[in-house]
Records
---
Amino acid sequence: MDRLNNKVAIVTGASSGIGRETAKLFAAEGARVVVGARRQAELDSLVAEIAAAGGQAVAVAGDVQDEHFHEALVAAAVANYGRLDIAFNNAGTLGEGGPSTGVSKAGFAETVAINLTASFLAAKHQIAEMVKHGGGSVIFTSTFVGYTFAFPGVAAYAASKSGLIGLTQALAAEFGSQGVRVNAVLPGAVETAMFREHNDSADKQDALASLHALKRVGQPAEVAHSVLYLASDDASFVTGTASLVDGGISVARG
Ligand SMILES: NC(=O)c1ccc[n+]([C@@H]2O[C@H](COP(=O)([O-])OP(=O)(O)OC[C@H]3O[C@@H](n4cnc5c(N)ncnc54)[C@H](OP(=O)(O)O)[C@@H]3O)[C@@H](O)[C@H]2O)c1
């Protein structure tokens, strides 16, 4: 339980789902963690849970669309723990869906702002801090959607999330020489609030589960363990990758 000893990490989208599980796992593995999202109460309960388990965390509430929020997260890492080694940029939204001929310009733009532009702004400030201490590991949460295949009605989500693959490659190429690794994790369907909100019946959930080779959806902790690998020195030669953690939804047919 010491794969992240002496490391300092930021986790966004930490108030629930994949981000919350990953923040807890990072802390259990020895990292000191700055957790971010909009909902202060959920962040406070996460910090208390981590502390009760013997870990260290602080919370910063804000919206990832605000560049100052990313500056504040980095500043909290430095003020509380002296440095920044790991950033899991995981906050995201499905955004405005449905038939693409009806999607508004504002809805499309907001989805891109939350999923893609915010991830760039986050990495911009995180990498500037990481290179002061020899580098670090940046991980984005993308998805198989728009990368290996897509569904009808998810144009903004697919476009914004697949944009993260290009961002991952470009930043990996740009900052590898300074010790910064950049990777994307691409989950399949994972049982979180987002999943339940958009698959609001047992029939819908079963239908989605059946598309995976493993014939089930994933759990947040299963994604968290892959993120831990990418964050840790175990992945010291891994950068620029799009890492599928998708239960085989990308390869299964029938
Ligand atoms: N669940 C899946 O099937 C699945 C599959 C592939 C990829 N993903 C991706 O996994 C990531 C995590 O989602 P999840 O499944 O764990 O869902 P979730 O439980 O709903 O978590 C979403 C997180 O993002 C945060 N967030 C959303 N908009 C934000 C904003 N504008 N500013 C700051 N934080 C914001 C939410 O916090 P607040 O509401 O407190 O701000 C929450 O912590 C997302 O990027 C999602 O696209 C999910």
---
Amino acid sequence: MSKARKFVITRLFKGEPKVSDFKLDSEDIPVLQDGQILCEAEFISVDPYQRAYTEGHGVGRTMIGSQVARIVESRADGYPAGRYVVGAWGWRDRTVVDVANADKDFLLPILVPDLGGLPLSLSLGVLGMPGATAYFGLLDICDPKPGEVVVVSGAAGAVGSIAGQIARIKGCRVIGIAGSDVKVKWVKEDLGFDQAFNYKTVNLDKALKEVAPDGVDVYFDNVGGEQSSAVIANMRHRGRIAVCGCISVYNESQVAVAPVIQMHVVSRELRMEGFVVARWSGRWDEAFRELGPWIREGRLKYRETVTDGFVNTPQAFIGMLRGENLGKAVVKV
Ligand SMILES: NC(=O)c1ccc[n+]([C@@H]2O[C@H](COP(=O)([O-])OP(=O)(O)OC[C@H]3O[C@@H](n4cnc5c(N)ncnc54)[C@H](OP(=O)(O)O)[C@@H]3O)[C@@H](O)[C@H]2O)c1
């Protein structure tokens, strides 16, 4: 009987996760039954939600996460061997998926369409969940208009780098915020952001007042905390804020304190809306139908930070949380 490798949690995370919080384990792969497929992971995705969604964590449980995998054996209609699928089966290299009984919204494998020569790993990035997040979070919630000023935090990451470029394609003036000079240079020089700032070295309030003296119309918030308070304090009347995530606090065990924003929200009549990308789960294809051609036309650029080897998945995850990634962080199994 062949084996599957998986990472299980040995200790619940306290602060930043550690390599020693995980253990590489294995299990037997059962003989395939009717309605099942056997998948071999090609790329594992490491994402911030894997730190934030602590309800999915447990000692002895397989670490949560999604992957793009090849179907190597199939006894399920519509899922032929050789096709690639995206599934949320956690950090494991081989998985038997009961397609017939899979939960429709979560565990059901999504067949990867023909990517027209683009890399398979993009189905975990710009042509996957992060791309859909950037697209719907920006366009559906903020409805940016040409000429408006859009600020994106986490600007050099998987979601932020795409959200900022979509805003630019829509004719907005885009300001990015990221955590290193290399990232700032990348989003300005390669991705075409109009301005970008390193939040670790720049006073954001001051910087925004200089580059956007009339205020910010749209804020796509990936990080929360003090950075977001600074942006919100610089919004224009009737500005829109899409709250995508708050990675600045995911490793915190105590509630973080940031400057109060309510006075700005009230006096400038701001609209602030949180979202989860699953809201548009039936419509992700709409996003990919626009994002794909933009990539091929060279209007939308992507970058991946690829860690080699399944055994290095914990390091890739920790590195992503530390900000070591440019663009989407993935593990090549
Ligand atoms: N709502 C949804 O449905 C949805 C879906 C996907 C993702 N998200 C959220 O979107 C955000 C970005 O996700 P992603 O997948 O694109 O990850 P990512 O930006 O590719 O990677 C995480 C980045 O977070 C930044 N970071 C780490 N600690 C930080 C801190 N203390 N303050 C500010 N930034 C920090 C790092 O960049 P720096 O070097 O710039 O610090 C790091 O590279 C996350 O908050 C995530 O939870 C939400």
